[in-house]
């Protein structure tokens, strides 16, 4: 296991609403090693994005981090405020959003924006900042980077804009990048190219990624490790290949069973039968029990975290026995670099 760069411990993020306190993230823990990619997967509303925003200190009232720690290279960043957090964000930990225009200003040239981003965290000349920006564009596979610096965002395709957003995130060689569904809106072949670049970048630069997605096909081929979230909790975690080959939590098994064999990256994860519960009205005990074929009498009480071989976990009273089955091929493309 590579050196841990991000450790999330018992993170709790809540929103005060008219319906009461919503526990959007309820005791989430995971860690990511240098150069590793963690896939954070689950249905809509499971708490993936709020987890990402919490790590970056981007939760605004009526939301708040109610407990837990986010250790970046061993230092708890949940305690940082204002400027101190802004210094960390962008330099040591960065975000890539689904819509690159969350990062890019439509009325400024790419070069102007990237130079400003470099100089926000480093005392360097404009010339040196421009060279750094050009290198970052080249690193994410953008052809003719010098020309692209002179372009406005609207002059680039969606895929190129997302590559620019990734290049901006990489400018300061952050320890961690949180990526929130950054390829979901893109054409499948462009998505495949970007995922291959991301795998290469993680391997070459050592930047760790937390990759938030609905799409198990993406996770199965891109991620080293998986956390499956349901109703604000991690219900299963472990090495991606092992979890996909032999899920131990009935929810993960349901997600996998609902993925067609020829599932293409970019399509939304089909739903497990039943609907996701309202966070304002969760059942007692296991939140998944009402949808679970394996639910039994114990499920009215909070399930324990079961620890299995190879660091795998499942939050379940009745975990599935390990099976030796053929590895499920969710996609014909793998995004692992050759090294
Ligand atoms: N500002 C907010 N106020 C109240 N509730 C919120 C707020 N932001 C998020 N939530 C709630 O937190 C829960 C988790 O949301 P989150 O966006 O993290 O889910 P997700 O798994 O990322 O889903 P999606 O993939 O659809 O974005 C949801 O029930 C959502 O309604």
Automatic annotation (TrEMBL):
Q: Where is the ABC transporter domain?
A: 6-256
- Protein's UniProt keywords contain Oxidoreductase: no
Instruction: Assign the protein's first listed, main location to one coarse class.
Output: membrane
Q: Kindly indicate whether the keyword NAD belongs to this entry.
A: no
Which keywords label this protein?
Answer: ATP-binding, Cell membrane, Membrane, Nucleotide-binding, Transport
Report the subcellular localization.
Cell inner membrane
> Which family does the record assign?
Belongs to the ABC transporter superfamily.
- The protein depicted here goes by the name ABC transporter ATP-binding protein
Which organism is this entry from?
Microvirga arabica
């Amino acid at each position: 296991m590579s050196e841990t760069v991000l450790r999330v411990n018992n993170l709790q993020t809540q929103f005060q609403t008219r319906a009461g306190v919503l526990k959007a993230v309820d005791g989430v823990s995971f860690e990511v090693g240098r150069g590793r990619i963690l896939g954070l997967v689950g249905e809509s509303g499971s708490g993936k994005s709020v987890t990402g925003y919490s790590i970056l200190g981007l939760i605004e009232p009526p939301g708040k981090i109610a407990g837990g720690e986010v250790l970046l290279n061993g230092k708890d960043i949940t305690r940082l405020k204002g400027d101190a957090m802004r210094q960390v964000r962008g330099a040591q930990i960065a975000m890539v959003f689904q819509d690159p225009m969350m990062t890019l200003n439509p009325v400024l040239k790419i070069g102007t924006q990237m130079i400003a981003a470099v100089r926000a965290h480093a005392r360097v000349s404009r010339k040196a900042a421009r060279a750094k920006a050009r290198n970052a564009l080249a690193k994410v596979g953008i052809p003719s980077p010098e020309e692209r610096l002179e372009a406005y965002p609207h002059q680039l395709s969606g895929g190129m804009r997302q590559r620019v957003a990734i290049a901006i995130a990489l400018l300061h060689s952050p320890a961690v990048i949180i990526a929130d569904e950054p390829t979901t809106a893109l054409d499948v072949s462009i998505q495949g190219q970007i995922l291959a670049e991301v795998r290469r970048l993680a391997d070459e630069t050592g930047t760790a990624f937390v990759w938030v997605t609905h799409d198990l096909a993406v996770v199965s081929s891109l991620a080293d490790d998986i956390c499956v979230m349901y109703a604000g909790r991690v219900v299963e975690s472990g090495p991606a290949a092992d979890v996909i080959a032999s899920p131990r939590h009935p929810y993960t098994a349901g997600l996998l069973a609902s993925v067609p064999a020829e599932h293409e990256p970019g399509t939304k994860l089909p739903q497990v039968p039943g609907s996701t519960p309202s966070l304002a009205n969760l059942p007692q005990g296991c939140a998944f029990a009402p949808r679970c074929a394996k639910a039994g009498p114990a499920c009215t009480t909070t399930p324990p975290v079961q620890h299995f071989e190879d660091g795998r976990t499942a939050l379940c009273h009745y975990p599935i026995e390990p099976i030796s089955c053929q590895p499920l091929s969710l996609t014909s493309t793998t995004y692992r670099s050759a090294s």
